Amino acid sequence: MPLKVDFQKDYKNWRPVKLLIRMALLVTSTMIAYVFPYYETLAAIVGSIFTVSVSFIIPCMCYLKLSACYRSWNYELLGIVGLIVFGALAGVLGTYSSIVEFALGAGSTCY
């Protein structure tokens, strides 16, 4: 649920409060954009770390824990370990490329 909707739920008929909440969210977003001019590269760093872990590594680890197929080597276990290795490699390479891009300042393109 969006932040705006969550706050405004309690103040249904209070138009000035709704307006103040919207203005506060707009000012806060603007300040964050001003403080972090390379926001897209920061988002890429965070995305490459957490998206890979949530998409590849954690589901495979949970499946291994629940199915107990890790006790003997078979094709299923080999595939799951392959997915975990692929996810870890993709996360490391994505994080590395995002950090290099952030360090070189490639996020400061002029439009």
TrEMBL record:
GO biological process annotation, one example? amino acid transport
Question: Per the annotation, which location comes first and is thus the protein's main one?
Answer: membrane
Q: Where in the cell is it found?
A: Membrane
Tell me the keywords, alphabetical order: Amino-acid transport, Membrane, Transmembrane, Transmembrane helix, Transport
Q: Which InterPro entries match?
A: AA_transpt_TM
Say yes or no: keyword Transmembrane present: yes
Q: Which Pfam families does the record match to this protein?
A: Aa_trans
Q: Which residues cross the membrane?
A: 19-36, 42-64, 76-99
What GO cellular-component annotations does this UniProt entry give?
membrane
Whether Repressor counts among this entry's keywords is: no
Q: Where is the Amino acid transporter transmembrane domain?
A: 16-99
Q: What is this protein called?
A: Amino acid transporter transmembrane domain-containing protein
Provenance organism: Prunus dulcis
List the lineage, top down. Eukaryota, Viridiplantae, Streptophyta, Embryophyta, Tracheophyta
